[in-house]
Amino acid sequence: MEKTIETLRTSFNAIRTGRANVAMLDKIEVEYYGSPVSLKSIAQISTPDGTSLLLQPYDKSSLKAIEKAILSSDLGMTPNNDGDVIRLSLPPLTSERRKELTKVVAKQSEEGKVALRNIRRDALKSYDKLEKEKKLSEDNLKDMSSDLQKLVDTYMKKIEELCKQKEKVSPAT
């Protein structure tokens, strides 16, 4: 369940809000000498200010490949290549884009909840199996099931809080 929360946090970091964040580029794969590699492994990424990202490739010959990967990604940013570094400017969010991002956040948090429900289902199945094998009494099964439900409820609340936090950062106005 902790893994589900961490995965959700990571995917929320990749969603663009008003500020530049190096985590936005985590999922970008660059075709480098015929094989896909992560952008972080072939370039240094920094945020000189709140509205831009600066990419310094370790190998200058990879500039075009990085530029192509950014253009083909779903970031909605146009890279500025000056021959040495690539600059990415984050345009201010429009209200339409904010609404889109809010929907993405809601969808990802729902996926997290589904993952938690699947974990609960699997645990309940293993409880039932133990009961059938007479390794668990009916009372123990009920106690464990209610404890499991409390745990799942706690993690559902954590997901809700993460979702509300992310929506606050990029409110749909």
How would you describe this structure in keywords?
173 residues; Topoisomerase I, Chain A, domain 4; Gyrase A, domain 2; four-stranded antiparallel beta sheet; two-stranded antiparallel ribbon; elongated; Ribosome-recycling factor, chloroplastic; RRF_sf; Ribosome_recyc_fac; coiled coil
Structure, described:
Keywords: Chloroplast, Coiled coil, Plastid, Protein biosynthesis, Transit peptide. Responsible for the release of ribosomes from messenger RNA at the termination of chloroplastic protein biosynthesis. Pfam families: RRF. Residues 9-168 form the Ribosome recycling factor domain. The protein is an alpha+beta fold and 173 residues long. The chain has 2 domains: 1-12 and 94-170, Ribosome-recycling factor (Topoisomerase I, Chain A, domain 4, Orthogonal Bundle); 19-89, 2-Layer Sandwich (Gyrase A, domain 2). It has 5 helices and 6 strands, in the order αββαββαββαα. The chain has helices spanning 2-14, 39-42, 63-72, 95-132, 138-169; strands at residues 29-32, 35-38, 43-49, 52-57, 79-81, 86-89. β3 and β4 (52-57) form a beta hairpin. α1 runs antiparallel to α4, α1 packs parallel to α5 (138-169) and α4 runs antiparallel to α5. It starts with a helix and ends with a helix. The model has no long low-confidence stretch (mean pLDDT 84).
